[in-house]
Amino acid sequence: MEKIRMSTPVVEMDGDEMTRILWRMIKDELILPYVDLKSEYYDLGLENRNATDDRVTTESAEATKKYGVAVKCATITPNAARVKEYNLKEMYKSPNGTIRAILDGTVFRTPIVVKGIEPVVKCWKKPITIARHAYGDVYKSVEMKVPCAGKAELVFTDENGNETRELIHNFKGAGVLQGQHNLCGSIESFARSCFNYALDLKQSLWFATKDTISKKYDHTFKDIFADIYEAEYKEKFEAQGIEYFYTLIDDAVARVMKSEGGFIWACKNYDGDVFSDMISSAFGSLAMMTSVLVSPSGVYEYEAAHGTVQRHFYKHLKGEETSTNSVATIFAWTGALRKRGELDNIPELCGFADRLESATIKTIEEGKMTKDLALITEIENPVALNSLDFIKAIRQTYDNM
Ligand code: NAP
Ligand code: MG
Questions:
Q1: pTM for the whole structure
Q2: Which atom of ligand 1 is nearest to the CA of 15?
Q3: Integer angstrom CA distances of residue 82 from 59, 75, 305
Q4: Around ion ligand 2, which residues have CB less than 5 A away?
Q5: Which residue, 370, 386, 235, 314, is CA-closest to 17?
Q6: Which residues line ligand 1 (CB under 6 A)?
Q7: pLDDT tens per residue across span 314-326
Q8: What is the distance in A from the centroid of ligand 1 to the CA of 377?
Q9: Which of the 8 DSSP states describes residue 67?
Q10: Which of 11, 153, 226, 380 is buried deepest, with most CB atoms within 10 A?
Q11: What does the pLDDT look like over 318-365, one tens digit per residue?
């Protein structure tokens, strides 16, 4: 069979530890036999980040801007232990943070749903995608401990030196203080990324804040979303039969729990942090969660939501067998190749991505899976395969389809 041709490269960002091992297996068994892969390769493995003083991370993000689509393997975010383990010149920043800062994007996380791995919330029939705003609020806040009685004020000084003041509190004794901010530009980017992604997925978009209590801060989020929706997206949404829906965060939580899924839930930074872990664990497993960074200019970076699975890697190094779930990393590849196919008008490439995803799901539904899933599945007598045999089983399913 002739391999599927590509016209524009995907940016390939290799990574670390167990996911780097899976990366090679996925390429060898599931991609290269079928696709004449065009990729621009960047090695984001920690050793090469160290060798290049982390320039490789910036270069890979710049390449993503140029070509529009990237696929990324999980990478180590160095801490003190990693600095020692890899003899690093410095404690480099999180690659995801660096890439996100350059692409200015929103991260969308979606669980991969298979029969036999049932969500704990019984009414959820379709995946729920979380869109998390990745800038500001409590993540960029400044804090103070108030030691004694005194007056706390918010002070804004404009470029001409004019001050605006707002009393926070007249402290009668000790307490705590926090100053948060966000930027209208960042909220606008967040809104556009969410509206674009909803159109892409043909799914409705929900957004929620606490604007009844936070009448200026959260209300600004609500207003920016509403204005951009009215001006730029309303007609497109109506044409696709999807809706944009705003409600209060506590009402949203109650509705999510009673919904059947199949929508995108846009969250402020903190809400997204909390609810993405709730959604992924309620759907079954972090190893079954995909993640895509979408920039407001329409650049896409696909990855798995989990890390480098360090514990499994150390077993692998000792020559022991591993059963590491490669599904989210496979879906990172299919996501990137399908997007490449859409942008370059190569339906065969989109078809390949669809088939490989179906083969992956079918393999699991036929009872062949990795250990993490075998432990939680309702399928009777599941077969727990090792890392490579699971990928080979998918290849066999694909070839027989
Ligand atoms: P992790 O790699 O997500 O793994 C945590 C645990 O979750 C594993 O030990 C394993 O449990 C289970 N698990 C996660 N993915 C799995 C998979 N595909 N198949 C089977 N089990 C899976 O998190 P971590 O061990 O805390 O972090 C390791 C490294 O990853 C860190 O250096 C961190 O900086 C990095 N990290 C990178 C990213 C990213 O690049 N996007 C995200 C998060 C973390 P059992 O051991 O019980 O089997
Ligand atoms: Mg978190």
A1: 0.89
A2: 40
A3: 23, 12, 21
A4: 273
A5: 314
A6: 74-77, 96, 286-287, 303, 306-311, 324-325, 372
A7: 999 999 999 999 9
A8: 20
A9: H
A10: 11
A11: 999 999 999 999 999 999 999 999 999 999 999 999 999 999 999 999
